[in-house]
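Morning run. Coffee first, then this:
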Amino acid sequence: GDEGLAWWCGWRGRGCRGHGDVQRPLRALRALPRSLLRFAEASSGVQNRLLVSLCSPGEAVMVNKPVDSVTVPGTEGTFTVTNNHSLIVSQLKAGVITVRDGQESKDYFISDGFLFFNHPTDGSGCCTAKISAVELVPTSALDKDRASQVLSELMAAPKDNEWDRARAQLGAALIQQVI
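And here it is:
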């Protein structure tokens, strides 16, 4: 309801007048026939490709981009998904995601997150791979020298209590993936 949406967007107690204006278009979209929505999705002309979405709380790096494959760092090991892969939901660990399309590839660092792979819901033959990440950064934007410096500082810091030891262990594991 409106109260839940008001809480979600942080307007509660700040003079929020409700979200009737937001809810009205949502209700209108729900009223559209499913066949019309499927037609709109299929009309993009993309057939039998993997549609990848890479998102973090701060931004959507790509949304339904047609690609050949995506390689992700799963908690049980690195794996690659292509169109028509079996259904999967996988937890991801810190590492590099590689998105390949033809001869091009683009790498992104992920701190952790999830991969949701689904089969087509329309006649396009396009499966979807949606990656929801806590942090997602192109590897080209990472400063590996700075990461090495932070790792040295982290390892040299005192580890007098359990918190310090855990912080050093987790931080080192994360930074090793950047380096």
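The two ends are 46 Å apart (CA to CA). Good start to the day.
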